[in-house]
Amino acid sequence: MIRIALAAAVALAASSASAAVPAKRAAQIDAAVARAMTATRAEGLALAVIEDGQVAYVKSYGKRNAAGAPLEPQTVMYGASLTKAVFAYTVMQLAEEGVIDLDASIATYLDKPLTDYPNEDKYGPWRDLAGDERWRALTPRILLSHGSGFANFAFLEPDEKLRFHFDPGSRYAYSGEGLILLQFVLERGLGLDVGREMQRRVFDRFGMTDTSMIWRPDFASNLADGWDLQGKTEPHDERGRVRAAGSMDTTIADFARFAAGYVRGEGLSPKGRAELVRPQRPITTASQFPTLQPELPPAERRADLAAGLGLVVFDGPQGPGFFKTGHNDTTGNVWMCVERGRRCVVMLANDVRAEAAFPALAKLVLGETGAPWKWEYGDLTFWDGR
Predict the structure, then answer these.
(1) Of the candidates 202, 237, 278, 260, which has an alpha carbon nearest to the alpha carbon of residue 53?
(2) Is the residue at 85 inside a domain?
(3) Taken in order 376, 379, 380, 385, is the CA torsion positive or negative?
(4) 343-349 vs 306-307, strand pairing mode
(5) What's the domain range around 304?
(6) Do residues 44 and 181 both lie within one domain?
(7) Do 9 and 145 lie in a common domain?
(8) Angle, helices 23-40/358-366, rounded to nearest 10 degrees
């Protein structure tokens, strides 16, 4: 009875969708999402389909808050680490304009040594690196491809001190701190305002009117709260600081526009667009997290899995593909594309339990891609699609 009621609620709360996807296929997607939400107990999920670089389908399902207000295509949701891919796209524009060199030491752009800057709440504790000159080997490319050598964030260290765990550029280990450092270089070294640059170069370009790197009061009228693994609700965080690693708020309608423009290569030269999704750094671990786990023996590594710039690239039965996820205790997001046909699926969930359904739903939309789901989500038990 509970499952029947939830499925009915999903159907009633779902938004209208584009006619670009044939009705039969749209019905298949809707039915699969209803089954997924019932099986995972997820309260809210939004999905978009990109075909040949154009938005073909946008639909939202379920609730945006505990009061039962419907999740809509214009509901503001937390973008989480999808922010990193948008930031990398912005940095690539700057690189193509000659503002920054992806392979120059960050020292090139600072007016004093990194470790001489005071620790600030907005940025990382750079003074923790005093006495370790390896920071001079860091480049924008190394930071965007998660080769910094840092933990994900300094506050996750036992003593909350930032340190190098390996020489910069020598291996992959996911680090939001590395993206924050590149933001610092752009802002303190080059005098740029990263929030304004992303607004101008991305959000305005693609008509993303309900997307921002910081909280806007007008978001409050149509805002998604979140559900955690235990089904507890948490209010949406009103983020007041631009954080290149993950402060973006967006909507499924807006992010679908970005995904379509990105896969078309809009705003970049063909060379710049290709560089974003070129394998930059081999991924050598059994899973994404924990970030500093030992590397696998070479024979056990997935040879096609690598870091691009701000995202992960892989090769599968349909050829090259790429993806980026976003996650916190109440958020599960994924954006995945296959280059052939310029096809993508975007899923934003304000209930972290929905992540278990992502592989099956992505396969329904895109077919088998060969995406490294177990590497990304570790021991998560995935919904089987039934």
Answers:
(1) 260
(2) no
(3) positive
(4) unpaired
(5) 2-75+217-236+249-377
(6) no
(7) no
(8) 170
